[in-house]
Amino acid sequence: MALKKLSVPEEAVIRKDFHDIWDSKMARSTLITVSLMLVIAIPVIFLIIIVNTPANQINGADKLMKMLPPSAQNFNLKQATFYIMTNSLFPMFFLMIPLMSSSVTAACSFVGEREHGTLETLLLTPMKPKQLFGAKVKGCVMLSAVITAISFAAFAIVTSVGDILLHLPFFFSWSWLVLILLFAPAVTVLGVMFMVLASAKSKSYVEAVQTSGYIVIPLILLFLGEFVGLFALNAVVFLIISAVIIVLDVIIGEIAARSFRMEKLLK
Amino acid sequence: MGEPAIHADCLSKTYNGAVTALRGLSFDVVQGEVFGFLGPNGAGKTTTVKLLNGLLKPSSGSCSVMGLSPSIHSSEIHKICGVMTESAKMYGNMTGMENLEFFARMYGVEPGKAKARAESLLKCMDLWDARGRELHAYSTGMAQRLSLARALINDPKVLLLDEPTNGLDPESANAVNSMIASLACKEGVTVFLCTHQLRYAQDICRRYGIIEKGTLLACGDLETLARNAQFCPKAAMRLPDGEQLENFERGNDGWWRADIKEDDDMPRLLKKLVEEGHHVYEARIVRPSIEDIYFRYVQINRGEEWH
C-alpha cells in the first residue's frame, strides 16, 4: 500500500533494497535472531525463572519493592519482579530492535552499494542524489518499522502470558504507548541517519554494523540510570527524550543528506 | 560541422588540489558521430566521462552535453545519456533480466514496458539464454554486454562509453563495435568512445581525440591528424623477386615503399616505374593507421625522436 504512493524509481530502489537485505545471509540472520532473542527468548527465560523460583529466593527483594510506583505497592514479590522487568528492562530490549534493524538495513542499503560498486550506476540514472537518499531512507525506515511492529506483537503476547500467569493487569501503559508511537520511530530514523554518516567512513557492511554499536551505548546508559535509581523513567520522560531524538534526527538527517553528494560518494 | 552534442572548453580537473587529472581540454563532438577518445590507462579518459555525465565537477573550464551543463543539469543529462564505465557495476545477486528491468524502472519506465525493453536488449546483446542467470555467474564478456545493454535502456541520444570492449573476446568485441556503429549510423546516437584498443577504434570512429597524462595532444579526423603529425601516405609496390627500386624501402612483407606527398603522385609514379621497365604486380597507397598516428603524437609529446 505504502509503496503505491512512491514514484516508479523510488519504488524500484526500495524493492531492490528489500531484495538485497533478504538476500544477505548476515543481515537476514541478524534481523531475525536478535529480534527473537530480545522479544521472545529473554522475556520467556525471565518469566520461567520468576514463575519457578520460590519468592524467598529472589535476591534484592527490598530494592525491587522500592522501585515500584505507588499504584503497584500491593504486588507480591513475583508480581513486582515481572512488573519491573516489563516496565524497566524490557523497554530497553525492545528499543534495541528498531535501532538494530535500522542500522543493519541502512548498512546493507548504503554501505552495500558502495561495497559492490553499484552506487555509481545508481547515480548515473535520472534520480537525483537527494531523491535516491530519500528513497533509501524510506525503505530502511519502512522495513525497520515492520520488524519493530512484528517484534512488539510477539513481545505483547509473551508479556500478556506472563501477566495472566502472575495475575497482573495488562502491561500496556502510557509509557509503552509513547515508546511505540514516538520513541521507537525516532530511534529508527536515528539508526538510519547514523549509519548513513558512518557509511562514508566504512569500507564494508561488517565494519558499518560494528560502528553502529556505539549508538546503543546511550540507550543502555539511560536504562542503567533508572536501574541504579538515578532517575525514574515514565511516559513524560520518554516523551521528552523522544522529542530530543526527533530534533537530533532532523539535524543528523540534514547533515547526512548534504553529505550524500555525487563527488563525495564516489571518493 | 553540425551542432556539437558534446562540448568541452578548457576543461580541467584536479583531485584534492594535488593530483591533476585533466589540463584544459577543449573539443567538440558532433551529433551522430562516433568520437574515439584514445589514450593509455590513467590518461584521464574516465575522468572526462565522469565530468561529462556530472558525477564529477570540473576544477576549471566547462563542458556541455546536448547543450546542458552536467554540473547543473546532471539529472536531465542522465535521461538522454547512456553511460558505461568499468566502475559502474550492476547487481551480482540479480539476474540479467532483473538488472535491466530494475534500471529501466530507474528511468521511470512502467513495469510492463521495462520488461519489454529489457527483453529486446537481452536478445540484441545475445544474452537471451542467460537472462535467468544471476550476474555473478556471467563471464566478463557477458557482464560487459549487459552493462552496454544497461547503458542503452533509456534509448539514449548520447552514449559515453569507457572501454566497452575491454575483456571481450575478438568476436564479442566485433559484435559490440558493430552495434555502436549501427547506433550512430542508423539512429543518430552520438558516441564518445574511450578506448586504448586502437584497432577497434579505427573501425568505427569518424574523429579522434588523443590524450596523454591529462593533456589533449590532438583532435580531428584521421586525415587531419596524419597531416598535422607530418605523416605522408606511402606508395607501396609489389615486384617480382630480385627486382629492385631506387629510393624505395623494402619491407619484411616483400613490398617496396616510398613516401608520396599526395594521392595524385601515385599514378605519375606508377607510370614512371612501368616506363622504366619494372614489372609492377600490385600497387596501392598505404595510409597511416590510427595506431601509427597515435604513437607519433605520443612520441612527439614525450620529446622522443621518431623515424
- Provide the gyration radius of chain B in Å: 23 Å
CATH superfamily of the largest domain in chain B: P-loop containing nucleotide triphosphate hydrolases
β-strand amount of chain A: under 5%
**What's the multimeric state?**
heterodimer
Based on CA inertia axes, which overall geometry of chain A fits? elongated
Backbone shape of chain B? globular
Structural class of chain A: mainly alpha
Overall pLDDT score of chain B: 91
Number of helices of chain A: 10
> What is the CATH third-level topology name of the largest domain in chain B?
Rossmann fold
Residue share in helices of chain A? over 70%
Could you report the average pLDDT of chain A, rounded to the nearest whole number? 88
Work out the helix count of chain B.
10
Major beta-sheet overview of chain B: 6 strands, mixed
Number of strands of chain B: 13
Number of domains of chain A: 1
Q: Total number of β-strand segments of chain A? A: 0
Gyration radius of chain A, in Å: 21 Å
Overview of this protein structure:
The complex is a heterodimer of chains A (267) and B (307). Chain A has one domain (2-265). Chain A is 79% helix and 0% strand. Chain A is built from 10 helices and no strands. In chain A, α4 packs antiparallel against α6 (129-165) and α7 (174-199) packs parallel to α9. Chain A is an all-alpha fold and 267 residues long. The model of chain A has no long low-confidence stretch (mean pLDDT 88). By secondary structure, chain B is of the alpha/beta class. Chain B has 2 domains: 4-95 and 137-226, Rossmann fold (3-Layer(aba) Sandwich); 232-287, no CATH class. Helices cover 35% and strands 26% of the residues of chain B. Chain B is built from 10 helices and 13 strands. Chain B has a 6-stranded mixed beta sheet with strand order 5-6-7-3-8-9, sandwiched between helices. In chain B, a hairpin with a 5-residue loop joins β11 and β12. In chain B, α3 (96-106) packs across α4 and α6 packs parallel to α7 (198-204). The mean pLDDT of chain B is 91. At the A-B interface, α1 and α5 of A face α2 and α3 of B.
